[in-house]
Structure prediction request, 543 residues.
Amino acid sequence: MLPLRELQLRLCAALKASRAETDPALLGLVSHRGGLAAAQRLAIYADMYRTRLVDVLREDYPRVLTILGDGEFQALACRYLVQHPSTHPSVRYVGRRFADFLAGETGGLLFLGDLARLEWARVEVFDAPDADPLRLSDLESLPASDWPTLRLRPIPACLVVKCAWPVHEIWAAAADATPGRSGAGRPEASTLRVWREGWSVSHAAMGDLERRVFPLLERGEPFARLCAAGEDGLEPEAAAREVGSLLMRWLEDGLLARLPA
Amino acid sequence: MAIAVPFLGHGVGLRPKHFPQLWDGTARVDWFEAISENYMVAGGRPLAALERARAAAPIVLHGVSLSIGSTDRLDEAYLAALRALVRRVEPAWVSDHLCWSGVGGLYAHDLLPLPYTEEALAHVVRRVVAVQERLGRQILIENVSSYLTYTHSTLAEWEFLSAVAERADCGLLLDVNNVYVSAINHGFSTNAYLAGLPADRVGQIHLAGHTDMGTYLFDTHDGPVIEPVWDLYRQALRRFGRVSTLVEWDDRIPELDVVCAEAERARAVEAEVLEETNATSA
Prediction:
């Protein structure tokens, strides 16, 4: 009699490698009673394993799916699952390495890894910690003398994604595309912020100024430092105005966390 | 000893498709069963919906990844997350499945059947006891639908399940649809199954739809409960008395009122059986 651990290791390895229904040792362990052959019974589990996990990837990567089409997506997803089987008890994390995998398996679609990176950031932000967003009214009563030392922070449900491709454009184009390959474009570096406002996940491309200033915001640098980072050829007053405009946009987007009491 | 859980009535699974009814206050149910792992997250809409549901009705946590039969060490991080969720929502009870879901650090995310041997029994009993200690409460263990059995099993599934419940002092979540599906797939008697379970350990019943694949039944949870499963539910109520019952619907999920109609049917069936039982004993 095969010890329980040996049985489990053998079946799990066979499911991962898509060979459960042909493993001679497993076939000898499975009963025929009830009308189905052992191979058919093992095949049910092998199919469920693939189907369930590929479905999770389909949900997490809808635009990659649209661009690849179902057949190619399924083939890639199955190869991914062989190389990167789930190691977390929650199925939520099955796709966490899919972007890196796709970056090396693009089959001519060089932007696919970046597009997947954006889609995974959207998944991550969806259930990231909650935080009360800072509102303009919270800042209106702040004395002018406090502004230079004011330390703002983005909400936890905010991520920055750096890409070699304009994936926000590819992502948008894929929404209207019919299934199948589309939306190639040309490489062009982009930095996106992905955030959640209420329950709604959004992303936006960052301009030059925001790209320079946002890392300082993430580090909790004082507002005066943010303004200084915005100078880059501008007069200090003009830079402060530009950073002020950026601040207004962040407030409107619900991107800043409420200040500690 | 027995399982001490309250009678909650006839509930439905908490599913994202029905979250809008939580926000507009039209989700009127006896109780909700929430899939534990879906709410072991830091924040966002799912947790907010769970809080809303908790405010509207009692909650029960039902896990799919405890992997009680795995020969890996218990996943302490998972148990810590489950414990935190239990503290947060104070569920009426916590349940998971009699199965294993992975080994060697890998997760198949499936309810894989165990061989029903003395070795597996001792292993599962030790793990249930350990989990109950970590959570500081009894848990309920559910029978799964299965598509294979092992040639070296020495116990019937109901014997194994009963022994786990008695030795680990846990409760049972009896999935009537799973009994029906597995009975067809493996050719055992549903009567023997129900008769073999300890009545004072059954704390909850599941009902669900399944799909007839021609050569076997597949537990798809994507449609209404079929008549033979309703009949088996009647038998279960005659054997176990009034038990909190929940309708599972996880794929091709219809509007909430359709799922609630199934829960109402369960309520009607229970009333009919209780009336019949009272008439017999009068």
